[in-house]
Design goal:
Layout lengths: L8 H8 L6 E4 L6 H9 L3 E6 L2 H13 L4 E5 L5 H6 L6 E7 L4 H5 L24 H7 L2 H12 L4 H14 L5 H9 L13 H11 L2 H15 E11 L2 H14 L22 E3 L9 H6 L7 E7 L13
Parallel strand pairs: 1-2, 1-4, 2-3, 4-5
Antiparallel strand pairs: 5-7, 6-7
Helix pairs in contact: 7-8, 7-10, 11-12
Length: 319
């Protein structure tokens, strides 16, 4: 679908390994790039979720190309268990989650995700709830600073929050360029070439959409829905996302370090892991992909599979 280049597509397909007759979930439909490739790779059924009404509208054309095989659902992927149960789906053979904001959302100035073009300070992936402007103009200075530091890993968060608090006394901050200029005045450019407003915009977007909470809910739901042999593939784009995915997958695969021998928890026998990692560490995009699509440069891919259950022991009867 034009305007959207799915990141690490070949690696995603390799780990998803869709097969004929399987049921696959694309939990973050976005531009439909993964879904299109999955449907083209095998005669399977895809359920696709996105909280953005515009993404669901774009998907209608793709659904027509694959009649009866693509089903679009508007909602949050963290709510996938309920969304699918309402349609009679209780188990999945493969799931892909492409975390964060989509290219379509970034490129639409009226959505307010980017500081590269002026637009309303919105940042909502769905069409409801508080906007980024609401947060910027109503949060206390200390809470705003904490948000920028914790969700944007912005070292100068307190300086930025103070500047915002001073500016909003004069007039409400309502546009992306207004906010970006306030930040740029107090955050010096660094050698990386990254815009000084990048981390603050990330933090506000994550909070507006509760993205980290959504990831936690989505990972738990994915584990509950995967059938034996089912595969989960997650592509993340910054350290906060990847950290959550890494910890979840390691725990699911029984890779978390055991408690100290002095810890009473060490006396409790841990059950056998139900999942196996398909990636030893985070996979990265190739150099050729990042040259062709600079937005892919920060991508990290991790994958795991639910182990097939052990066969039940049979009792042999002596002749």
């Amino acid at each position: 679908m034009s305007g959207h280049a799915p990141v690490m597509l070949q690696e995603v397909l390799a780990h998803l390994a869709p097969r004929a007759g399987e049921i696959v979930l694309d939990g973050t439909f976005g531009g439909g790039g993964y879904t299109d490739a999955i449907l083209g790779a095998a005669d399977c059924t895809v359920w696709a979720i996105d909280r953005d009404p515009a993404a669901i509208e774009r998907g209608a054309a793709l659904a027509k190309r694959y009649p009866g095989r693509l089903h679009l659902l508007q909602g949050c992927f963290g709510d996938m268990v309920r969304l699918l149960a309402e349609r009679g789906v209780a188990a999945l053979d493969a799931i892909v989650l492409d975390l964060g904001v989509s290219s379509f959302q970034i490129d639409a100035a009226e959505r307010g995700f980017s500081f590269r073009a002026d637009g309303p300070l919105d940042m909502r992936m769905a069409a409801s709830g508080p906007t980024a402007a609401d947060l910027v103009n109503t949060l206390g200075e200390s809470e705003l600073a904490d948000t920028l530091y914790q969700l944007g890993e912005e070292r100068l968060s307190r300086r930025i929050a103070k500047s915002i608090a001073t500016a909003r006394k004069e007039a409400p901050i309502t546009t992306t360029l207004q906010l970006a200029e306030i930040i740029r005045r107090v955050v010096p450019a660094d050698r990386s070439g990254i815009d000084p407003a990048t981390r603050s915009f990330q933090a506000l977007r994550i909070r507006v959409n509760d993205e980290l909470g959504e990831i936690e809910r989505g990972l738990e739901a994915s584990a509950a829905l995967l059938a034996p042999g089912g595969r989960l593939v997650v592509v993340s784009f910054h350290s906060l996302e990847d950290r959550l995915v890494k910890r979840f997958m390691q725990a699911a695969a029984g890779r978390m370090p055991g408690p100290s021998r002095h810890d009473p928890a060490g006396l409790v026998e841990r059950g056998a892991a139900q999942f196996k990692l398909l990636t030893g560490g985070a996979e990265r995009p190739t150099a050729s992909e990042t040259r062709a699509n600079p937005r892919a440069r920060s991508a990290r891919l991790r994958a795991l599979t639910r182990l097939a259950p052990f066969p039940s022991p049979t009792t042999e009867t002596a002749p």
